[in-house]
Design a protein that fits this description.
This protein is of the alpha/beta class. The chain has 8 helices and 7 strands. The longest helix is centred in the first third of the chain and has 14 residues, at 25-38. Bound molecules: S-adenosylmethionine.
Length: 184
């Protein structure tokens, strides 16, 4: 799936995983497979950092003929992400939106079939409330740090788990990943 050069870059990024709060490789690989399995095309990521998760997500969306929009407010991380997206040849399938996530979300009017939440943990529930009407039936909302930041994301977990439109499962990857399928 990855060329030797791309895999070397991913391995290099994994060495600084803690500095950039990146998801682990297993979670990234799982999201990549999940997107390919159900053929998602229009993706949204909240929390780009240096682009590690975005590379894996965009690679799968691109293979499905789709694209990713990703949100980040730190200029320095965006510069790094742009470079990494280019080196992994997914830059043509990614749009980076710079700004505060809740403000950027207000400007988006697309419908999405894959959303990955990985920014300010206390704001997860607000991201969910804001983006949910734009998630297509059959789409997925995944969120990281569900176990590692359980207290901070509690309102989100309660809201999405009890929501009649979603079927949710928490998967015990190192940080804990929630996967919610929009059933109606
Ligand atoms: C956990 S890191 C994202 C890691 C990335 N998803 C990955 O796995 O490679 C969270 C990122 O979200 C950004 N962030 C946090 N709160 C934000 C907000 N309210 N608006 C935009 N970006 C935000 C941070 O600057 C940080 O780079």
């Amino acid at each position: 799936m990855w060329t030797e050069q791309e895999n070397n870059l991913l391995k290099q990024l994994e060495e600084t995983q803690k500095n950039f709060w990146n998801i682990d490789r297993g979670t990234a690989n799982f999201l990549n497979m999940l997107i390919k399995l159900y053929g998602a095309k229009n993706g949204l990521e909240i929390g780009t950092s240096n682009g590690y998760s975005g590379i894996w997500i965009a690679k799968a969306l691109k293979e499905n003929g789709g694209k990713l929009t990703t949100i980040e407010y730190y200029e320095k991380r965006i510069v790094l992400a742009e470079e990494h997206f280019k080196n992994c040849k997914v830059d043509d399938a990614i749009t980076i939106k710079q700004g505060s996530a809740l403000e950027v979300l207000e400007t988006l009017d697309d419908e999405y079939d894959f959303v990955f939440i990985d920014a300010n943990k206390r704001e997860y529930v607000k991201y969910f409330e804001q983006i949910s009407p734009q998630v297509k039936k059959g789409g997925i909302i995944a969120a990281d740090n569900i176990l590692s930041h359980a207290e901070k994301v509690q309102t989100f977990v309660e809201a999405i788990s009890s929501h009649p439109d979603y079927q949710t499962q928490i998967i015990p990857f190192p940080a804990g990943l929630s996967v919610s399928y929009k059933i109606k």
